[in-house]
Design brief:
9 strands; elongated; glycoprotein; glycerophosphodiester phosphodiesterase activity; hydrolase
Length: 525
């Protein structure tokens, strides 16, 4: 059985099913290259996993260029997972070769695939740096949530690899080589064992802040077509404190809800190509509200399944989604007033205005006042005509994009991207009674981290997931974490010390046995 296992390992790694006595040049170099690419592939997979929270940004950016909705991010995820799995398995086979002392003759086809993998990771990293540079903040931020677990994983990996390190140490023929191997291993071990001293996570704390409130980003776009009545109704089932939406004015100056703006603003989420031939590239000012409400604003959701969530809907819900239309702002205000839910929105075309009384802000403020909704339920975000709006609607809550504008205006409500503030800054703002809403938060790990940081509320696409969380995914008191850290390090150190002693004694035993066999005289015939 052992012989068959050796043959299989040799066949997978080098595609040589028979034992090869010849040495292959640069075999160790190729194993080092395999280790390097494997680390890069796993690191890239980690980046893709962390950036999954913002996957819709990638797909939307691609749609703006290609005018066709494809889940490009999921394709990238699948390719990255296949690459990481392939490299990891190949690395494991290489390590097994070292353990059983098989030659490291990596087949040329594996070498080609490794170079392709390296090119793929380099291409993805370049894309991040050029088109999505701000996402590196999210990756850096993620270590506050994952660093304690990565450290534990590194300790386990170090303990397992120590077997090979000690083997190399005992096989080394010169004292200098032995010293280099052991010193390198000790430095790496010290870094891994002691890195928790540098780990700073808001989830390692004695005092857990209250759970952040939820704001429905365009309603509940994972469970219904975005910015539709069905979507906002679904978000109410999550007990959201506010609806977040996007408002534009039509040709008749009546406000409607739609995220995409500019030319072709209807192309992604409606059937404008079928209903208004040749007008799919028109601007918002070319359509009246009556025309917009003849469009189907839900069929695209069922057909493209942008969040891979349609399968969770019932047959009746799918039929309802298929029949959604473009809602007016007045319709949403009726729902918000009836259910006592606040409203926050972006204005997509305000920069094109030529004065307050010709602006989107003016017409939308008038629409809000006519609805009869309580003024304090309006979280006013657009900055362009803020002071004019305050004069005619003083009861609106003023919300700001940055701390500088808020302080200058004497406000106390921030609405920022989740990666714009660190845990310390959030804590300081909350200490000054400033409300902090962070967007867009979809993943449990990120919501847990912001919960521990003390955020007031988060805007989310995944309210149906976050509403069920009664506590962060993980939260430890500092003393408990320190106990776990020290215990794991001590156990690892004892195991490695035991392995080193066992290998030393075993090698000495083999050496004495070989020496005694050579010293036995041959008997004469």
């Amino acid at each position: 059985m052992f012989s068959i296992g050796r043959t299989c390992l040799r066949g997978i790694y080098s595609c040589q099913w028979n034992s090869q006595n010849r040495r292959q040049n640069r075999a160790c170099w190729w194993f080092s290259f395999l280790s390097f690419v494997s680390i890069l592939a796993l690191s890239w997979m980690y980046v893709c996993f962390i950036a999954f929270n913002d996957r819709n940004d990638v797909n939307w950016l691609a749609f703006k260029t290609l005018k066709k909705w494809v889940n490009w991010y999921m394709i990238v995820m699948v390719i990255s997972a296949v690459l990481a799995t392939y490299c990891l398995f190949l690395l494991v086979f290489g390590l097994l070769h070292l353990i059983i002392r098989e030659p490291l003759n990596l087949h040329w086809l594996h070498k080609v695939f490794l170079f392709l993998g390296l090119f793929t990771v380099a291409l993805g990293t370049a894309g991040f740096c050029i088109k999505w540079e701000e996402e590196w903040k999210t990756v850096y931020m993620s270590f506050q949530a994952t660093a304690p677990f990565l450290q534990l994983g590194a300790v386990v990996a170090l303990t397992l690899i120590s077997w090979l390190v000690f083997q190399s140490y005992h096989r080394a023929k010169t004292a200098a080589c032995k010293v280099f191997i052991m010193m390198t291993f000790l430095v790496v071990s010290a870094a891994v064992f002691l890195c928790p001293l540098a780990i700073c996570s808001p989830c390692i704390t004695n005092n857990l802040p209250p759970k952040p409130a939820l704001v429905g980003h365009r309603g509940a776009p994972m469970m219904a077509p975005e910015n539709t009545v069905m979507s906002f109704r679904k978000s109410m089932e999550c007990d959201v404190v506010a609806f977040e939406t996007d408002v534009q004015l039509g040709k008749d100056m009546k406000p409607f809800l739609m995220h995409d703006n500019g030319s072709s603003f209807l192309l992604r989420t409606t059937d404008v190509k079928d209903k208004f031939l040749g007008r799919d590239g028109d601007m918002n000012t070319n359509f009246t509200l009556q025309e917009l409400q003849t469009l189907n604003a839900g069929e695209w959701f069922v057909r493209t399944d942008p969040f891979q969530s349609v399968s969770s809907l019932s047959k009746e819900e799918k039929m309802e989604a298929n029949n959604q239309t473009v809602p007016s702002l007045s319709e949403l205000l009726v729902i918000a007033k009836k259910h006592n839910v606040s409203l926050i929105f972006d204005l997509k075309n305000e920069k094109n205005s030529t004065g307050f009384h010709n602006s989107d802000s003016y017409y939308i403020t008038e629409t809000i006042k006519k609805s009869g909704i309580s003024p304090d339920k309006i979280w006013w975000l657009p900055p362009e005509y803020r002071h004019d709006v305050r004069n005619i609607a003083p009861g609106f809550k003023q919300v700001y994009h940055n701390e500088q504008d808020m302080k200058a205006d004497g406000g106390s409500f921030l609405n920022m991207k989740y990666s714009s503030l660190n845990a310390r800054e959030i804590s300081e703002l909350r200490g000054k009674n400033v409300s902090v809403n962070l967007w867009v938060v979809n993943e449990r790990w990120l919501f847990s981290l912001l919960w521990c940081s003390g955020a007031s509320s988060v805007t989310t696409n995944a309210c149906h997931i976050l509403k069920n969380m009664s506590k962060p995914d993980w939260h430890l008191e500092p003393n408990i974490y320190m106990g776990i850290w020290i215990s794991v390090d001590v156990i690892s150190w004892l195991l490695m010390f035991g392995l080193f002693l066992w290998q030393s004694r075993r090698r000495n035993h083999v050496f004495r046995q070989n020496t005694s066999e050579r010293s036995v005289p041959l008997l004469p015939r």
